[in-house]
Structures are given as C-alpha cells and as structure tokens.
Amino acid sequence: MQNIVSIANLSKTYASGYRALKNINLDIRRGEILALLGPNGAGKTTLINCICGVLNISEGTVRVDGRDIVTEFRAALSLIGLVPQELTTDAFETVWATVSFSRGLFGKPANPAYIEKILKDLSLWDKKDNKIITLSGGMKRRMLIAKALSHEPQILFLDEPTAGVDVNLRHDMWQLVRSLRDSGVTIILTTHYIDEAEEMADRIGVISKGEIILIEDKTELMRKLGKKLLTLQLEKPLARIPAELAAYRLNLSSDGSQLIYTYDTDGERVTIVSLLNALTEAGIGFKDIQTTQSSLEDIFVNLIKDER
To answer: Which terminus, N or C, of the chain has the lesser number of Cβ atoms within 10 Å?
Structure first.
C-alpha cells in the first residue's frame, strides 16, 4: 500500500531543553486508520502537531503525499485536516459561519452544498445557526471535525476525538470515522480508550517517552502478543499440580478447582491435545473448558510496563 505520510528521524526539542520526540520514523499508509497509543506525556500530541505544522521540527523531515511540511508548507497543509483536543474557535460565531470560514482559509471556493453535507453527516444541520457557545460538549467535538473536513482533506488527524463524550456519541463517531476511511480519507487518531483502537484501527502505534516502541498491523499484533488462556474446570479439586504435568507450566487456581494453561499462538493445538491426553493419563477429569484471549489493553499495559 502506498504511503501518504513519511516521517524520517523526527525529533522535537523545546527551548527548555526537553526532548519530547526522539528520532521518530513512521510511514502512514494511504487509506488506513492508524491509532497512536501512549500514556500521558508520551509525545502523541507533539507528534501530531509537528506533522501538521503547528510546531516547528527540531530535526528530521515530514513529507505529506511527497510534499515537505517545511519547504512546501501550504501544499502539504492543504491535504491535512486536524481535530485538536481543545476547542479553538470563536465561541460567539455560528456553526455554519465557522465551518465555512475554515474552508475559505485554505483558499477553497464557497461550496454551501458540501458544507451542508458535512453538517448533516455530523448531525449538526439543525444547529447550523446556533452560536458555538450554546453547543454541548459532544456537539462542539463534532463541530471541530466539521471544521477539519471543510477543505476536503485527504488526511484527518483526530487528537483524542471522543475524550469527555458519552458512550452513544463515541459509537456514532466510530461510524463516522469508518465512513470517512471508506471514502478514501486516511485517519490518524490518538486515544486513551484502548477499545476504540481495537474496534477501529488497521494498525497500532505505541509511543513511550517520545519514541515509537511498536508499530504493527492490529491483527498481527494481536496474534503475536495476545496471550490465550485455556481454563479447565476440574471434576475434583487438586491440592497441587502433578509432577508429570510440570512441562506444561500450568497454574492452579487458589481453590484447586481450575487448571490454567497459557499459550501465545494458534500453532499450539498439538500441545493442547497432548495436555488433554496427559490429564487423562494422570487420572484428572475435567467438566468444562474455556478459552480467552488477552485484549489490546492487556498488550498495551504490558508494553508500557516493560518500558519503565
């Protein structure tokens, strides 16, 4: 798949000497949804702001569809829509005027039909004449997305797009993001909601202490790092695990009623069959088997824990 954003050796050092980003190398694929995860202060927002030209780059390069973000600033920015975490607009302006003005800032000719479509897609049409100060938090978030889409960008950056909004609105926004991706827009989002990334993203990037520690297709990440648990409900409690089962590295529940086998890949079916045969030979009966797989949140927590 063709890359639409290419980042090479990107670093950001503030005047205080604090180095917020360290040699970031990242290619963003055209038409994908990329989720950037990381704890507070990891550098997610700084990275987005550097890519979008909000912050000056200390070292390295960012190219947007082949255009350098520094030397071809206007051409690069015309391809980008940014939805920041905070509301940054005139609170006493109307929704229609604000979104229309944003389109004009990028030199786009007036297109009332397109603005109407955006506002309808975002369930803002009935609020088009309302002043922004009168909108709810969720509506203000939608309005920021409308502003970012006003000039028809190819790439949309969403910085914590569902922070502070209710569950129903979160799911509505997920649907909107999918529809934008289906229309050809590349989506990059930061989020604290791990389930959001697990639900929507094609790829996952994890940032810690200003460095990207992992970038992986979501399905491949889940396959490689997602541990699976096989839990056997025993017919009779065990006091301890028999020595002949030691090779399977089983765990016994505190009440002795469950044996738990942990494995990492789909390729262990033969081992599972061997384990079940070994249980039978040891005279250990079981009445139920359950399998579970660790979530993206489990993987993320373990990755960050390993970095500390």
So the answer is: C
- pLDDT tens-digit readout, 153-188: 999 999 887 766 667 777 777 888 888 899 899 999
- What range defines the domain where residue 243 resides? 227-307
Tokens of 306: 């390993």
Looking at 89-185, which runs of residues are DSSP E strands?
Answer: 155-159
* Calculated CA dihedral for residues 82, 87, 89, 94, nearest 10 degrees: 110
CA distances from 235 to 261, 266, 276, 289 (A): 17, 27, 14, 11
Do 69 and 193 lie in a common domain?
yes
**Residues whose CB falls within 8 Å of the CB of residue 251, separated by 6 or more in sequence, listed in order:** 259, 260, 261, 262
Q: Using the 3D structure, point to which of 170, 198, 223 is the last residue of a domain.
A: 223
The closest alpha carbon to 95, from 72, 71, 76, 120, belongs to 120
Cβ count within 10 A of residue 286: 16
CA distance 128 to 108: 20
DSSP 70: T
Kindly report whether the global pTM for this prediction surpasses the value 0.85: no
Residue 113's H or E segment, with its range, is helix 112-121
Q: How far apart are CA 107 and CA 151, in angstroms?
A: 8
CA distance 83 to 158: 5
pLDDT digits (tens, 9 = 90+) for 92-131: 899 999 999 999 999 899 999 999 999 998 889 999 999 9
Distance CA(252)–CA(249), nearest Å, equals: 10
